[in-house]
Design the sequence.
């Protein structure tokens, strides 16, 4: 009898390759966007509006994935949209991690009043629906890339703080921490040298997850037209446009949706994949 | 030097040591929780070079006492004097330079060895912290001492067997050249064959390195073989503290007698009252 | 005295392991007669617990029996369908588990945990089953059985819980009980009471008892006969008195020498010599090779 | 012990709500600079500004302003919507039933699917089916509701248009209802024609909301079931002669369900948070859709009202789940 779980486990390597491959492809597209995009993503041409993708009747050569109602090239807009998506993912993801993980580590290891304050803050934050909170912040801060990033960090630090706090608490109860204390290690040293390495794999998984979430939040904000200026190509903006003209030109919605879907999925699978592959301690 | 005052003074002098924890289950809504005392005024000495066995059932306070001795816990009151110096109420910073001199080996090596450090780093880290030189050689020496191959320094704890992990714990403690080692139930998770090996090793090290050892266990049979003095704890009190032979031949307290009577000897002729 | 439990040539392997991987149980054979207590000893990984689990049909899913017979009360359990086997075991055998703290369902009251087998499997009326449970709790000397039956497990001490588990094991008058390290988790003074209780109950009910333990001291107190295991193979099968007088196998002797004994500071706690380990390993390997060559089961 | 636990929990809830009010106050009243300008429609006269200044005490200290504002909020005075010139509380309460019904429907779907997956996965552990469930759960988990919504719109709105992907109910049916709880009302009045129309509209957004939660429930419940299945009391039940199904349901489920229950509580608040974007996506007339309109129209009093209602809802749900956990856990009940 074959153990089916073994088959799933073997696929993990594949999942790492697939998700990593897509993200590398995306990063290259974002970096080289001005050179590889077949058209100017902002260029409107009403004579070529609503062209279908290349395999359908009525397609025009050069517009591989068709055009939207203003005649803009869908493929070029997706490639340029990748820039916004990845910038938000990297900056917002990293900043969220730094703030959230630090607070979570302090709360979980030092406990006491620091934990009281941080936990209460987390409770308060959990009382707000994140999307609504984000929209509210953008309404107050004004639109723009910086506002989007600030909004994501302000809202999502609790995701790291909660998980890292719980993990640091669990690790803090282990005897290796007592053993470091007997050896004369300082509290800060124990936190950074003993506990942090054991929490790091979790932080890594959360980081890639957060990057995917940042991409989605940016897409949602552009979907409701609250992200960066509405001219710049973003996947969320394209989806919003596509949603209104779904029956006439479905491709305007479908292709950015696929890009978004793959990106979010890849980010979430990447973290797990990396952990399974490189964490020396198998649990 | 052998006759100097410093050498005849006991390494540990413990006087009326008490420890209480706040009882969160009885905490009123406001104000502090009531205290529950788990160590009720313990007084004893550990002479230099002694191997002291600390025995008791679950809830006797033996593990708690051990953690107070190496100052993982701060006593609520009483004196804890190590080598002539009161350490019970020192803060972490003042304690730090002294920490090298009393080390601990833990019950569960899987939990007490940081899973993300290799054996070499596990042994070397405390050495570097206390400014030892030639740490690499010291790690090798420590591995030699506990009978592990030097190549083990590149392994992770999860790649070792239970007995090997416990040897790493011992190596880490002796590498610091401490005067005192506390061993907390270090063989209770091992099979009899590895148990015998680890105990043998510990006995040899104590003799060769001139260590003072406190050995916590629930098993009087194990303690008899290793220890020169035995202290029996029951519900946070010392019910008996005497010479090993004296304790086994002529136990003074009812609890000790009950404990001895309950041990199943590997002998079908033992009469079990 | 005919054997109530009879295991013949029982071999088990890890599921999905490549061919040629050593077996977990290597052609184990042993008998337990009605009223007999057989000890199963060995170090961790020797397979002693696995035998008890095989008898009760609770082997982990990863373990697969590849040959052998387990005769319980005249029928071979391994030739029955799983559901037949389950009912058979439920009606005629029982387990006293290792850790009383985890062996009672924390969200169910004590009473139903004792009576459920009687009502659901054996078809007793609830009133009869409850009367029987009270009687048994009384027999294992639990004060105020009616109150205990209404309690949740966390309201009882470890020793009390183990008494409840013993009562529950004897509830259906099983002819066969497997005790799997039943006192390892207890303090030594409580252990003594529990061992005594098990021995008394076993004698009074005439039950066949398979007693799994790593402690030769415990064996000498409760067992009549003894099987010593090494790497899934029975290396010695003997009477307890004979064993302690003169172990019949070098490995058994070494195990006995390693067992601490407080009455004699010079005896016990002697590490098992490497030569003994090598010899017993060679013996097991030879038996394994012979079994493979026999090709009875590929 | 139980009473003290509940009392402590109530106190922390109060502290949380106070913190929520401070955050809302700071974000809406302090950060944007001149709140009056934001609260007024374009073309307001200086007299209007004067009147509002006096009404909200903007001439006083921030702390005083906070307490004046908090006093109003506690009495249900969230101000007047700039857009519609109606009291915010009425607007919010008018939309709340739609959102609640959607969220509860999604929760029911998620629990049913998740529970089924967990039980099936446990029953068939070690088989290919379990592997498939794991992979499916992993996928469902890592894709947020926004994308599931879009996928469902494509599948059942365009490719195979069997469901409505826009609105809460066919417009001509609205006047049939006496309350705002359309779904409950249709069931209570046994009007299954209305119920059917509601379901055709609600199923897709509810399913989009439910998919990730179903996956989480499936994953966590299966994991705790599997852990529980290794415990001694489950093994003991097997030796008593019980079959696999009985052992899973009667011995394991009750103990495995507690961690899942707390998780469902937290996740249910996330699910309600997800309604904001899902309602937008499916043009469903609930609170979330109203919130986004309010932000686009810079209707700050309305936003503030919606945010506070959501926060109140979340806190109350968390409180209820905690209480439920306390009551269901025999260890705490009979401490």
Sequence:
């Amino acid at each position: 009898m074959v153990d089916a779980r073994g088959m799933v486990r073997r696929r993990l390597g594949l999942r790492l390759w697939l998700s990593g491959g897509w993200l590398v492809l995306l990063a290259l597209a974002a970096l080289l966007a001005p050179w590889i995009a077949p058209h100017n993503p902002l260029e409107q041409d009403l004579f070529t509006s609503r062209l279908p993708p290349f395999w359908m009747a009525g397609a025009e050569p050069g517009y591989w994935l068709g055009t939207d109602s203003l005649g803009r090239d869908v493929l070029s807009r997706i490639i340029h949209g990748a820039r916004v998506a990845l910038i938000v993912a990297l900056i917002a993801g990293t900043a969220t991690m730094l703030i959230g993980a630090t607070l979570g580590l302090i709360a979980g290891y030092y406990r006491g009043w620091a934990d009281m304050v941080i936990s209460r803050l987390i409770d308060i934050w959990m009382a707000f629906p994140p999307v609504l909170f984000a929209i509210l912040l953008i309404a107050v801060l004004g639109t723009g890339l910086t506002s989007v990033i600030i909004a994501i960090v302000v809202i999502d630090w609790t995701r790291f703080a909660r998980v890292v706090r719980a993990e640091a608490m669990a690790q803090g109860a282990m005897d290796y921490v007592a053993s470091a204390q007997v050896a004369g290690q300082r509290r800060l040293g124990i936190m950074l040298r003993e506990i942090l390495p054991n929490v790091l794999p979790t932080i890594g998984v959360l980081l890639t997850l957060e990057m995917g979430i940042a991409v989605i939040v940016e897409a949602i904000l552009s979907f409701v037209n609250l992200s960066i200026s509405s001219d710049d190509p973003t996947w969320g903006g394209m989806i919003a446009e596509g949603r209104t003209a779904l029956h006439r030109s479905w491709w305007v919605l479908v292709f950015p949706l696929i890009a978004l879907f793959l990106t979010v999925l890849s980010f979430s699978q990447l973290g797990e994949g990396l952990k399974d592959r490189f964490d020396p301690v198998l649990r | 030097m052998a006759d100097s005052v410093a050498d005849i003074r006991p390494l540990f002098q413990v006087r009326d040591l008490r420890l209480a924890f706040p009882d969160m289950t009885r905490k009123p809504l406001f104000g502090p929780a009531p205290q529950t005392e788990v160590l009720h005024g313990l007084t004893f000495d550990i002479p230099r070079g002694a191997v002291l066995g600390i025995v008791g059932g679950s809830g006797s306070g033996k593990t708690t006492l051990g953690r107070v001795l190496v100052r993982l816990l701060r006593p609520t009151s009483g004196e804890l004097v190590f080598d002539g110096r009161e350490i019970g109420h020192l803060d972490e910073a003042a304690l730090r330079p002294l920490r090298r001199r009393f080390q601990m080996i833990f019950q569960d090596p899987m939990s007490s060895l940081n899973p993300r450090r290799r054996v070499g780093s596990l042994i070397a880290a405390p050495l570097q912290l206390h400014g030892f030189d030639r740490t690499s050689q010291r790690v090798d020496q420590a591995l030699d001492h506990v009978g592990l191959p030097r190549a083990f320094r590149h392994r992770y704890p999860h790649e070792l067997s239970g007995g090997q992990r416990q040897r790493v714990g011992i190596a880490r403690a002796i590498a610091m050249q401490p005067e005192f080692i506390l061993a907390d139930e270090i063989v209770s998770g091992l099979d009899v064959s590895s148990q015998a090996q680890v105990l043998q090793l510990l006995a040899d090290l104590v003799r060769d390195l001139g260590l003072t050892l406190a050995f916590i266990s629930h098993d009087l049979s194990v303690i008899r073989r290793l220890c020169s003095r035995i202290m029996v704890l029951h519900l946070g009190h010392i019910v008996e503290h005497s010479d090993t032979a004296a304790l086994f031949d002529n136990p003074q307290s009812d609890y000790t007698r009950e404990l001895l009577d309950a041990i199943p000897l590997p002998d079908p002729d033992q009469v079990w009252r | 005295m005919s054997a109530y439990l009879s295991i013949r040539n029982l071999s088990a392997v890890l599921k999905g392991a490549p061919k040629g991987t050593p077996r977990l149980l290597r052609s184990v054979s042993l008998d337990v007669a009605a009223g007999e207590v057989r000890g199963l000893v060995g170090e961790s990984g020797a397979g002693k617990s696995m035998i008890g689990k095989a008898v009760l049909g609770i082997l982990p899913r990863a373990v697969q029996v590849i040959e052998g017979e387990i005769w319980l009360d005249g029928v071979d359990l391994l030739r029955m369908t799983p559901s037949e086997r389950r009912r058979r075991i439920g009606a005629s055998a029982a387990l006293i588990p290792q850790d009383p703290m985890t062996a009672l369902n924390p969200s169910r009251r004590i009473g139903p945990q004792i009576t459920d087998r009687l009502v659901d499997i054996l078809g007793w009326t609830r009133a009869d089953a409850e009367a029987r449970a009270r009687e048994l709790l009384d027999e294992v000397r639990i004060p105020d059985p009616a109150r205990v039956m209404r309690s949740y497990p966390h309201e009882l001490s470890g020793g009390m819980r183990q008494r409840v588990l013993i009562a529950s094991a004897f509830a259906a008058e099983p002819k066969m009980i497997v005790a799997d390290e039943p006192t390892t988790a207890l303090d030594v003074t409580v252990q003594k009471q529990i061992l005594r209780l098990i021995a008394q109950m076993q004698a009074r009910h005439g039950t066949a008892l398979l007693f799994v333990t790593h402690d030769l001291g415990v064996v000498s107190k409760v067992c009549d006969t003894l099987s010593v295991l090494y790497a899934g193979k029975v290396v010695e099968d003997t009477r307890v008195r004979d064993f302690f007088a003169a172990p019949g196998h070098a490995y058994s002797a070494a195990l006995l020498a390693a067992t601490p004994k407080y009455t004699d500071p010079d005896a016990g706690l002697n590490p098992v010599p490497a030569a003994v380990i090598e010899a017993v390993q060679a013996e097991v390997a030879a038996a394994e090779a012979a079994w493979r060559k026999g090709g009875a089961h590929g | 012990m139980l009473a003290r636990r509940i009392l402590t929990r109530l106190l922390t809830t109060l502290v949380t709500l106070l913190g929520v009010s401070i955050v809302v106050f700071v974000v809406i009243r302090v950060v944007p600079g001149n709140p009056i300008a934001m609260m007024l429609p374009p073309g307001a006269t200086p007299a209007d500004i004067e009147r509002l200044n006096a009404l909200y005490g903007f001439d006083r200290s921030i702390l005083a302003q906070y307490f004046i504002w908090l006093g109003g909020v506690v009495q249900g005075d969230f101000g007047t919507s700039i857009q519609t010139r109606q009291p915010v509380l009425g607007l919010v309460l008018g939309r709340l039933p739609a959102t609640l019904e959607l969220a509860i429907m999604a929760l029911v779907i998620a629990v049913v699917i998740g529970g089924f997956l967990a039980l099936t996965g446990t029953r068939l552990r070690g088989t290919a089916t379990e592997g498939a469930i794991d992979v499916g759960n992993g996928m469902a988990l890592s894709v947020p509701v926004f994308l599931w919504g879009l996928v469902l719109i494509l599948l059942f709105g365009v490719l195979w248009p069997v469901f409505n992907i826009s609105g809460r109910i066919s417009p001509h049916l609205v006047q049939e209802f006496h309350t705002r709880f359309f779904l409950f009302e249709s069931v209570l009045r046994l009007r299954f024609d209305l119920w059917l129309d509601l379901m055709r509209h609600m199923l897709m957004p509810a399913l989009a909301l439910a998919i990730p939660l179903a996956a989480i429930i499936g994953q966590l419940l299966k994991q705790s079931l599997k852990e529980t299945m290794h415990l001694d009391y489950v093994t003991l039940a097997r030796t008593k002669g019980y079959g696999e199904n009985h052992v899973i349901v009667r011995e394991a489920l009750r103990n495995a369900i507690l961690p899942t229950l707390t998780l469902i509580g937290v996740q249910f608040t996330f699910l309600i948070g997800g309604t904001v974007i899902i309602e937008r996506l499916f043009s469903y007339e609930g609170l979330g859709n109203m919130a986004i309109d309010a932000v686009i129209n810079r209707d700050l009093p309305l936003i503030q009202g919606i945010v506070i209602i959501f926060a109140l809802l979340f806190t109350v749900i968390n409180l209820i789940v905690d209480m439920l956990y306390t009551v269901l856990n025999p260890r705490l009940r009979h401490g």
Remarks:
- Residues 221 and 260 of chain D are 6 Å apart (CA to CA).
